Amino acid sequence: MRVVAGEFGGRKLKTLTGSNTRPTTDKVKGAIFNMIGPYFDGGIALDLFSGSGSLGIEAVSRGMEQAVLVEKNFRAMEIIRENVTMTKNEAAFQLMKMPANQAIQQLALRKEQFDLVLLDPPYAKQEIVKQIELLLQNGLLSTRATVVCETDQSVVLPETIGKLKEWKRQEYGITAITIYDWED
């Protein structure tokens, strides 16, 4: 696995061995960012189920100013730290070792707002709709926010969640990518 494009493009990323994480393939990652960018002019990203940190690192590589990487697994967090160190731009990343819903609560207390949210939870444990609703209720999304959800292709998310409307849905093998933007 590697960073696909941008400032860190081509750099190899480490992944956790075993079945604890399911890294987004380079092909799917490249497709996601080509749909939503492919490059950004600043902003803050939230990678709520970081795994290896790949999606958040890709977002910063492509122009996001910062990324908050949330992961509850200790071993995965160690891999994220190594991958962030590889960027030689550690200041652009904030790591939070805790479950996603707890991170949402802490970020709400700090009144953070995100321009890009990446949701790639373990397929069997996904609560994407609930988590997007929590992000909305807590004012964590900027009015230009894009929310990217990666699920098993059999999962069909609602067309609208609060003020967010599905902009695009694409399938890649067993993976589905659903992208939400603010409803006009």
TrEMBL record:
Keywords, alphabetical: Methyltransferase, Transferase
Q: Does the keyword Transmembrane helix apply?
A: no
Query: What is the designated name of this protein?
Result: 16S rRNA (Guanine(966)-N(2))-methyltransferase RsmD
Q: Which PROSITE patterns match?
A: N6_MTASE (PS00092)
Gene of this entry:
rsmD
Organism of origin is Enterococcus xiangfangensis
Listed Pfam families? Cons_hypoth95
The UniProt GO MF terms for this protein read: 16S rRNA (guanine(966)-N(2))-methyltransferase activity
EC numbers for this chain: 2.1.1.171
